[in-house]
Amino acid sequence: MVKNGGSRFFFGLMVIPCVILCFISVVSFSTFAAENNKIKSKVRAGDSSGDYCILFAKNEGESKEGGTTYQDIILGEDGPCSFAIWGQVTVCFASILLGTLYTVKALVGVKVLSCFTLFETVLLIITGILDFVVAIVITAGLDTTCRSFRASGSLCGYTTLYVNHNHNDKIKFYPNINASKATAWIGTVILGILAILHLIMICAYFRKLGKREDPPPYEPMTTEDGDTEKTPAAV
Fold this sequence. Notes:
Layout: H1 4-44, E1 53-65, E2 68-76, H2 78-108, H3 117-151, E3 158-159, E4 161-163, E5 166-167, E6 171-172, H4 174-213, E7 218-222, E8 228-232
Helix pairs in contact: 1-2, 1-4, 2-3, 3-4
């Protein structure tokens, strides 16, 4: 156990990664949503139906108009993009909740291992898994889209397109979506480190608790009268 002064300092430090995690989650989902919505608005100018997601887009070949060749891109289904956005929103709210708990514990001076520790650990593990899946979805979806562009000799995310068979101006999405991918992976690492730290604290606590509950060994001891009695052995 850590004394109250040490626990306050410890939980004060724990607030810092939560603030960082909240910031990068906001950057991730806001950047991703803004970029995907920009592409949606371009497509819906000519077609208001269908799913529009820059992830897992496919290149259907080339189309020509007025002597100009365009890449015909079919956007992916909306599910992966919605999951990526709302997954990061969930991570943001979880980081706010964790930061609030750490702040309260720092101000009150709660011991490092308290009734909230198990809840914090479970929340960190679940949120870490969620952020990990989000990072995988963005990475795989962006790679699939870029392979579709590069297969036709175009730069990823910066070319004149026919998107869902509608002519659009040049779009440049790769830098922002790639930044969203990077922040998702950074968040996964932060959550993983915090979860491992909590698991180490819990394991250390139960090890100490197990040692305290072990009965002390006994050894026979002979009195002055020659009688033998059992007394606790010296530790």
